[in-house]
Please model this.
Amino acid sequence: MNHITTSQTIGPFSHEAWQWAADATAAGTLQTSCATITISGTIYDGDGVPLNDAQIEAWQPAAAGAEASQALPGFRRVASGEQGEFCLQLSQCATPAEGAPASYITVFARGLVKHQFSAVFLEDDGGLARSAILQQVPAERRATLIARKSAPGVYHWDIWMQSDKETAFFDYV
Model:
């Protein structure tokens, strides 16, 4: 007997089925008492092909209070675009903890049996060298978790699902 388990792939219809959360957290609808930043990039498969059907979730527990009027405070869900592009508008509270991620990330994509967990950090965070999370990642892979500043409040971060550029992903036990 076949049973559906939590290990099923997201299937071909996630963009439609999960649209409610993307709509509730869309850029331009964010109401926050904090400043905001934008992290954008592209999600790639192991061959360097952009994934046009991925879902990226961003969790910011520390921002929940500043976003109390939001339908889903501290949470974002975005679908990747036709060229694999994504854009996250995030609250950046006035005193973020040094070395803490800008956001915890979950990736859902075709071919994944289980979603993947990651985190994104900002390159101008003075506490990166002391980050308890980054210290768990081999030094040569830490750069895969760091968004590069391209303008004030604007950062670029690509997600690679496989290859020698693979983004560091975490297991939670």
